[in-house]
Amino acid sequence: MNKQRSYSMAYGVVALAFAALALRLLMLQVVWGSYYRQRSESNFIQEQRVSHTRGHVFDATGQLLVDNRPAYDLYVTFALLPKGLPVLRQLLAPLHYSTQRLRKIYQRIQQAAAHGLREPMVVAVGLDATLCNVLQQHVLSRGIRGVLLKTASRSIAALVQQNVTPISRDQQLPHSQQHLAVHDSSECDLHVQPLQFPSRQAVWAQLQDFLQLSQQQLQAQLQSAKRRSGRAARFKPTLLLADVGFAAQARIQSAMSLGTLAGVSVVKAHKRRYIHGELAAHVLGFVNEVSLQELKESNGSYFVGHKVGRQGIEQSYERVLRGADGVRRIVVDARGRRLEESRQQALLGDVRVMWPPIAGLDLQLSLNLALQRYVQQAFVGKAGAVVALDPNTGYVLAMASFPAYNPNHVVGRNNAPVLRQLSTDPLKPWINRAIQSHYPPASVFKPIVALSALGQGVITAQDKQWCGGQFTMARNTWRCVKQRSHGWVDLNTALRKSCDVYFYQLGKALGTDLLAKGAQQLGFGRVSGIDLPQEVAGFIPNCAYYRKRQGYCAPGFAINSSIGQGDVTATALQLAAAYAALANGGTVYRPQVVRAISQAGQLHKEYAPEIAAYIDAKPEDLAVIRQALSQVMQRGGTAYGLRWNPNWPQLAKWLRTTKLSMGAKTGTGQVVRLGSQRPASPQDVPYKQRDHAWFVGFAPSHRPEIVVVVLVEHGGWGSQAAAPIGCDIIRAWSQQQQQQAQAQPAQQQGGQHAH
Amino acid sequence: MLINTYPLRSRLPYGLIIVCFALMGIAVVNLAAATRVGATALHWVHLLRCAVACGIGAVVVLLPANKLRQLIWPCYVLSLMLLVAVLVAGVTVNGAQRWVDLKVTRLQPSELAKISVLLALATFCAKDWPRHGYTLSRLIRIWALWRPIAVAAAAVGAVWLKYRLLRDALLSSWLTIAAALLLLLLWGLWLAGCIHLLLQRGWRWRQQVSVVDLVAAPAALVFMQPDLGTTLLLLAPLACMVLFCGVRIKSALLAGLLLAGLAVGAWYGLLQDYQKRRVYSLLQPQSDLRGSGYHAAQSLIAIGSGKWMGKGFGEGTQTQLSFLPESRTDFVLALWAEEWGLFGSMLVLALFALLVIQMLYISQHAADRFGQLLAFGAACLVFWHVIINVGMVLGLLPVVGAALPFLSYGGTSLLLHVLAVSLCVHVALWRQEADDIV
User: Fold this and answer.
1) Could you give the residue ranges of the DSSP H alpha helices within A349-391?
2) What distance in Å separates residue A31's CA from the closest CA in chain B?
3) Nearest chain B Cα distance for residue A79, angstroms
4) Do B81 and B109 contact (CB within 8 A), yes or no?
5) Calpha distance A161→A142 (Å, rounded)
């Protein structure tokens, strides 16, 4: 036969074709093998972030102030939410419905689910027995939930593989009952339970129920979740609701284990907890979700849902408190479901954690919890601030601003009304009044002026001035604090009685510039550099400023400045730092809130006291001023009346009996220039026009260990509104010191006994 | 007639049978790996089916040659009837009606049609073998009487079935109506010519039917399911066989030009955009459901990630974690290649090459034209199945529904290929006998 050519061609074609396939296989499996191996791994390996915990915060004595509590966050993966239409199509395939009709039925189911309808709805009626059986088989074999086949005559529900409620799932139904179907009856109806049948609406409706949310609230959350996740992240879990609470979490978990909440997951997270609530809220600050702007600027170190410190040390020590998320690999199948442990182990081996989460570092504050708590209790008044410093180190022992807020409410769930209320409060609770707002220091500024005058040699401590109740210069008249004359006053008396006229004369003699220079030396007019954010500098005017503003520098400006009025402003912290320098012999420390950074109990870094400046004052000048200030509490001083103050009986009694010597200065800062007539009582003046009450105290006066500054905003007279608070704080501190002193020897003795 | 068992044993094509069983073994092992995910043990089912198919194959092998020839035309008619039945009362899966439910098992008549068409072609061409190759007129037999009648019926049927599809195209302008009238006139002339020729020559069966008709009838029925892959796999052996018999070069060129012109003209002249889209979805029902790009990409990942030695039995993540769709049927090679690497896939490829070459060898040494054509057709059948499936799995060809011989899970497909191999064995066995007779 003449077919040999055909056969050789056929063999050739076969050989060529198989060679081509073999070549292709070689390319795929060897040349590009590594690439495809990687692709297959990225198919099933999902990298998950493991959240880290933020550092804890302790007080100076090691008591916990801020920690993290476990919380549950609700995540949603949009791509994995149930798709009911294909399921419905499968189920109803024997009925040969058109696609349009199926869609309509599915729409009805979704609507019913959205309204939370529990009772089953009819999908098809009067199906004959064979169809019923076929449907029954479909339902059982595919495990479709929420489908009921009711016989038309007796309406016996056919049970669907797994039952609906968790209780009946536990009570395993006998096998025969599970197949309790429609054998006997001739016809049956097909019902669908909207909340059980897989659909997005059913998931939302269940979540609404579990979370006690209204439809609008949930939809709003969904919208914001979608906005945050973006289009690309359909396969990534997106935070729907943070901190859902334990009860809701338990219900969601049980529903998830039943399989009705496909696409929903609950992730354990950490929530910031401020253990003492409002205590030191302004020092601690709070955390908040990172904003989109910050996300963009962070270069990938922050992720959606991360928390960022706002205000206080949470903000200023963000880098320390914040740790780093870990990364863990998990194995998922094509539908994004996580595999069981053993198979994960087989595919990934033991190195599941790419890198572990790094917890943030802990902070130890210089705050004393007991003192801080007392400060918070002792403060009387609407608004104000208290600062207590250790004058020998600059550490802040207590710092409080009033009104305060509770950071737990600020970071908590449903914080919107809290935030709204805090933001609209006319007293502006957000502001840390100790450092973030400045006030005329008034009389508490006088020792600073006096120190400058002594240093410049303008006066000596013994020089006396005549106080006639008022001071006149260039047709202007300044009144003294007291209407009547103080008579001849020296420096000691002037400070003790807070005689304005004496200081007017000092101011006139010093001039604006020298006065400003002295104040700046003690830290006024610039930020103290405390490790808290948004500190303000206050203001000390000099001639250059006045020339710029007024065109000239009149001596009258110095008169105003000399009693801490006019354009002079300072923060409570600045005053505390300045008085600390006066008290400790001339060292200006930088105030600090954080004493040390530690990591799991190990000291990581310690912040030693930091000297900002030495003031060039003679020790004897400082001694004179300290001496004068210590007499403010004595007979003839402005704060002497406290010993019989009926409003503070305990304090009064303590003051009368204590051996502790205290230095102090009261001040009353005018907010508005008043007319010639001083009102008899501060209550007659509108709140916003009342004077600020100041008190600065330190103790013990010869070797100070604490400086307390109290500011009561619009509180009236310093000696009446601020001084009792300050003295009370010093009393608490001294009693605390005494207790400690008693406890320590007792301990030592106890230890000796044990030997 | 064959009486002695000794010569039977000596003439058995052992190589072919061993390769065949080796492929079946691989299929069972492979399906065992795929079964780990699912609940039903596919590999045992497949093993059972292999046994049944081998039994049927043995019967075919041992059937005397003349008995086999008697069965050819009844088989052909039966498979045509089954194809009509599947269109009328078939089971729809993935948008295509392909199965006939026989209660015990589901049958895919289009697979069986391949075998009966093969047999019919072989016997027809053995008689019809043109000395100097086929001419165009012999392939088409345009003057057969039933031809214009069938064309008219097809046109009416098409308009009736796809009324919406064609309405706009046909009634869009007076020009098309005029063209239709012209066509009608031409058709009348054609019919008259046919009747004239029939009267002149008298009735002869072979004058009325061509090789192409034998395949066109079942192919059209399969195309309507719709199942493009099987249609192509029905047409491919025909083309091979016609080429094998020989085609005059002029005729071949003319036929090619005619076909190409028809296709291009229809595509650009007749159909609107949305109609084309409908044709797309008509040709590829699966593409609408999930997107064939996903299939192809996952298949490549599965194969490529196998590298040299594969991931090991049951360790293929693409299948085990269900990233690879259709991993037991059409994409079964991807599963094998992923778990056994280049080593495994080359083994399978080599086995298939051996299979086809041995079948061709049997064809080459067959005693008569029928045996030659039958074995050649069977070889073509297996060859095209392998090429189309492997080409699809390797991302060289578009995704059409085509099973891999022996390896894919599916009873009818397995039976088809076992039958194809059995027919070859049959040809090899009966060669001596035929020689004796001649």
Assistant:
1) 369-378
2) 9
3) 15
4) no
5) 9
**Which whole-number Å values give the CA distances from A534 to A310, A311, A433, A593, B136, in the listed order?**
11, 8, 11, 14, 94
Do residues B339 and B361 lie in contact, with contact meaning Cβ atoms separated by under 8 Å?
no
**Per-residue pLDDT in tens (0 to 9) along chain B, 438 residues:** 444 444 566 677 888 889 999 999 988 888 888 775 545 677 888 888 888 888 988 888 888 777 888 888 888 898 888 888 887 776 665 555 566 665 555 667 888 888 888 888 888 887 777 777 777 777 777 777 777 888 888 778 777 766 665 566 656 667 777 887 888 899 888 888 888 888 887 777 667 777 777 888 888 888 777 666 777 788 887 778 777 777 777 777 887 888 888 777 766 655 555 556 555 654 554 444 444 566 777 788 888 888 888 777 777 777 777 777 777 788 888 888 888 888 889 999 999 999 999 998 888 887 788 888 888 889 988 998 899 889 888 877 777 777 888 888 888 888 889 999 998 888 888 765 444 443
Closest CB from A1, A29, A332 relative to B306:
A29
Q: Which residue has the tokens 């869609």?
A: A103
Closest CB from A7, A21, A35 relative to B304: A35
> Which residues make Cβ contacts (< 8 Å) with residue B331, sequence separation at least 6?
B295, B299, B302, B324, B325, B393
* Alpha-carbon gap, residue A656 to A372, rounded angstroms: 25
Strands A692-699 and A326-331: unpaired
Please name the helix (run of DSSP H) or strand (run of DSSP E) that holds residue A713, with its range, or none. Answer: strand A706-713
Q: How many A×B Cβ pairs under 8 Å?
A: 109
Note whether B353 contacts A14, CB cutoff 8 Å.
yes
Q: In angstroms, how far is the first alpha carbon of chain B from the final one?
A: 13
Q: Which residue of B has its CA nearest to A45?
A: B317
A611 touches chain B (CB under 8 A): no
Check residue A742 and give left, alpha or beta (phi > 0: left; psi -120 to 50: alpha). Answer: alpha
The minimum CA-CA distance between A177 and chain B, rounded to whole Å, is 23
Contact (CB<8Å) A28/B364 = no
Which chain A residues have a beta carbon less than 8 Å from that of B387? 17, 21
Question: CB atoms < 10 A from the CB of B318, how many?
Answer: 32
A26 touches chain B (CB under 8 A): yes
Which residues 365-424 of B have a C-beta within 8 angstroms of A?
372, 376, 379, 383, 387, 390-391, 394, 396
- A667 within 8 A of A569, measured Cβ to Cβ: no
CA angle centred on B184, ends B181 and B185, rounded to 5°? 90
A36 to B353: CB separation less than 8 angstroms, yes or no: no
**A192 contacts: CB under 8 Å, gap ≥ 6:** A109, A120, A121, A123, A146, A147, A148
Task: Give the Cα separation of B192 and B197 in Å (integer).
Answer: 9
Whole-Å CA distances, A361 to A174, A276, A286, A346: 56, 20, 16, 36
Q: Model pTM?
A: 0.65
Helical ranges in A230-306 per DSSP H? 246-258, 281-284, 292-297
Q: Is B303 on the interface with A (CB under 8 A)?
A: yes
Q: Give CA–CA dist A202/B85, Å, rounded.
A: 43
Smallest Cα distance from B376 to chain A, Å: 9
Question: Cα separation of B267 and B261, whole Å?
Answer: 10
ipTM of predicted assembly, 2 dp: 0.82
CA B147 – CA B137 distance, rounded (Å): 13
